[in-house]
From TrEMBL:
CDD domains: GT1_Gtf-like. The lineage of its organism: Eukaryota, Viridiplantae, Streptophyta, Embryophyta, Tracheophyta. The keyword Methyltransferase does not apply. Pfam families: UDPGT. This is Glycosyltransferase. Keywords: Transferase.
Amino acid sequence: MDAAVHVLVFPWPRQGHINPMLQFATALVDTGIQVTFLHTEHNLRRFAQAHPPGLRLLSIPDGLPDDHPRGFLAFMESMCMAGSAAYRALLLALLSAADAPVTCVVADGTMPFAIEIPEELGIPALSFVTHSACSYLAFLSMPKLVELGETPFTADDLVCSVPGMEGFLRRRDLPRGLYCTEHGDGDPLVLKFAEAVGRTSKACALIFNTAASMERPALAHLASGTSDVFAIGPLHARSSSAASPSLWREDDGCMAWLDGHEDRSVVYVSLGSLAVITHEQFTEFLSGLAATGYAFLWVLRPGMVKTTTPALLREAVGAAEGGKGRVVEWAPQRDVLRHRAVGCFLTHAGWNSTLECAVEGMPMVCWPFFVDQQTNSRFVGAVWKTGLDMKDVCERGVVERTVREVMASDEIKAAAKAMAQQLRLDIAEAGSSSSELERLVRFVRELSV
Ligand code: UDP
């Protein structure tokens, strides 16, 4: 262990951020660097699985009682107040630690304070981006888009002022919020993200969980700015283990259920850890899936469908035509995507899910829910051509047609396979992502001197 270098890794305390930052922390530990991983107390209590060995775990309060729903804006506010005060106090304590003081911070780019506080205290801080580089660039371009009148973000017009994405990115592929779908440019969630991206882009380096082969033009534009840019992903593919620190209990029973199905005959459906849908949307998905005739494995987290209970959802899925559906509250997703029986993934195109699909060469049907997912799904459908993008349409006929087309398309399967092969090369020794990770480790060591 190299005691002269001590990195504090601090993710935004949500599943889709914890996963890649923990994978990153593990990669650092593997190089002999001392790493402390910072959770909130609430999350640390919820973790079912153990963390990888060699990591020191610490936690700070997020300022909310355990039974608080932690909606995005309330959570963000509480983290900025109570969370940031506790973080500052912890950093001060870690700075003066007698054994191995913290020499560098890698914090989630969603939280400007997590980068600005260490900088104020004289600790170098790097920003880790858990989203795609293309959606990051879209967020960064947001003020310019609004200034140039490239709004509302629901239109089909092509976007002109996001460099590197001319010709295929439409306004409806730009990040979208929750509250104001007519005018995404005015949505408080989108504005918060855009502000955070603007502030954290000034960190001394930006780390992306992506590969140059997936997002070369966006990365090139970002690298032409002031910060150093590192594209080191997909991080999860560096380890053969599919174990991930889950905030929910995984239902492994679905693996035996998958074993009983023919190759490439099942549709896996998951909208990630945050999306909440209406009962009408649930019904449209269910009817569309049932009409395809394919068996499907559907992740329905408790509370994910408004105004209904898991028991009623199970009943509805069980009664759907053919009774071919299986519901779980949380799946071992990486294992599911590797299973021979799964033929496509109906996904919200969250960046982790997109990467996990890409690594397994799994064709995608995208129904993006919010923020970066709109941009990711456009890349899947129009750039990589590894799936189809339903975008903001949730109708049973469209679900049925799109799933059928993706399950049957040899072109999409071939594109997904080619992307998976390229990503294997990227993360292999001397591949672009591995070389970037080595360069990043050198950079962190130099900052820590
Ligand atoms: N995930 C999982 N089991 C599930 C659903 C999701 O393990 O049943 C994991 C998935 O593998 C991914 C993460 O949760 O690593 C979701 O992250 P993503 O960026 O795709 O979406 P978010 O949850 O942030 O919207």
